[in-house]
Amino acid sequence: MFARRVAESWEVFGRSDPYFGVLNAPRFREAGEEGPARAAFFATGEEHVTGLFAAIHESLCPDFAPTRALDFGCGVGRVILPLARRVPDVTGVDISRGMLEEAQRNCGRAGLDNVTLLEPRELDSSRATFDLIHSYIVFQHMPQRMGMHAVRKLLTHLDQNGIGALHFVYASRLPHWRTWVHWMRKRVPGVHPALNVLQRRPLRSPLMQMNSYDINAILRVLQECGCHRVALRFSDHGGWLGVMLLFQRRTQLDVRVT
Ligand SMILES: C[S@@+](CC[C@H](N)C(=O)[O-])C[C@H]1O[C@@H](n2cnc3c(N)ncnc32)[C@H](O)[C@@H]1O
Description:
Layout: H1 2-16, H2 18-22, H3 36-59, E1 68-72, H4 80-86, E2 89-93, H5 97-109, E3 115-118, H6 120-124, E4 130-135, H7 144-155, E5 158-172, H8 176-187, H9 191-198, H10 215-224, E6 229-237, E7 240-248
Helix pairs in contact: 1-5, 3-4, 7-10, 8-9
Bound molecules: S-adenosylmethionine.
């Protein structure tokens, strides 16, 4: 039931307002059209991937140069495009067909032919493995139970010595009024559509869910899946506190502390 609700919401975002569904800051309001807002939107992806590789080189593996990368929850391809300029073979997975179609158009516009785009069930039924698995600002939009299930499945596709970079929200320090507005949007009929209109969104645009994860639960999955080298980088997206967990699937032998 969770999965169906998440899928339906993202299908609406993917069809009606995919760019704003990915980054909902006012400066990307016009990113749906070719122009400066779209260029700024994709520049954030380039910056993200530059930072990602720098963090991996600094914390886990100085000469890491992946050959097959997976971006889980790829949206319109904001991270896929810079990945595909650095990695020979890139796969993007997304629950929303609308997002995948726009990602395909963006790869075409960028002249990139080394990208495969899949729905989650297509990845589940494949035996493909990757030496880099990445996901950013995705798990926060699904309930923890569903997210942890997805993480376990994703890790079955990570090569030995491969690197994972998965982002989670773990706490919030939103001002009380924002928590209150979110509660009103969820519970009081009419508030959410009215605020959609005020924010120049489609009237029926669904409420984007935000979920915090228990870091202990994530660490346990990493340990059980043999990912024994772990580093992290913090994030703060408007009061939603998060971590990008960087880890390597590697036996415990070479990191044992005695
Ligand atoms: C906020 S967007 C981020 C897109 C991309 N990661 C980026 O940083 O540009 C979240 C994306 O996750 C996708 N998504 C949400 N739940 C998913 C799931 N269970 N499986 C795969 N994709 C999912 C949504 O369709 C959406 O494209």
